[in-house]
Amino acid sequence: MNREELFKRNMLMGTEFSKQILKQPELAESLPRKANIVLLPLNDDELYKENLRFAEQFKDEDIPVVFIEIEALFPNESTCCSLTLKNIPEEESSWIP
Fold first, then answer.
1. Looking at residue 96, what is its pLDDT?
2. Max avg pLDDT among 25-39, 40-54, 64-78
3. What is the domain range of residue 31?
4. Dihedral, CA of residue 65, residue 71, residue 75 and residue 77, to nearest 10
5. Most exposed among 2, 49, 50, 73, judged by the fewest C-beta atoms under 10 Å?
6. Which of 63, 67, 68, 54 is nearest to 3 (CA)?
7. What is the pLDDT of residue 97?
8. Is 96 helix (H, G, I), strand (E, B) or coil?
9. 36 within domain boundaries
10. CATH number of the domain encompassing residue 69
11. Can you give the pLDDT at residue 23?
12. DSSP structural state of residue 5
């Protein structure tokens, strides 16, 4: 996958994740205030692996990394389906002030 394709796929997922946050504010409340969020699409192995590889750069930072698995995007509705949060510290309750 070239950089342009990687960017396009992640931009789409990021946009859809942002829409889901607006629809499901309790999801945002479960995220740390400051975090590196890594979206992992379960229906796109190539992008999943690329995003995990990209997340490696965050492992030595003091900011938590939150992995969010996305099962799929609903066709025509353009929304996320079945989000699963991974590795969220309990002491952080919200990333939105």
1. 42
2. 40-54
3. 3-86
4. -60
5. 2
6. 54
7. 40
8. coil
9. yes
10. 3.40.1350.20
11. 86
12. H
Does residue 91 fall inside a structural domain? Answer: no
The sign of the CA dihedral 77, 82, 86, 92 is positive
What's the whole-number mean pLDDT along residues 53-64? 89
CB 68 within 8 Å of CB 38: yes
Long-range contacts of 40-48 (CB under 8 A, 24+ apart): 40/67, 40/68, 40/69, 40/70, 41/9, 41/13, 41/69, 41/70, 41/72, 42/69, 42/70, 42/71, 42/72, 43/71, 43/72, 44/9, 46/1, 47/1, 47/6, 47/9, 47/10, 47/13
| Integer Cα distance of 71 and 84 in angstroms | 8
CA–CA gap between residue 93 and residue 95 (Å, rounded): 7
Q: How confident is the model at residue 81 (pLDDT cuts 50, 70, 90)?
A: low
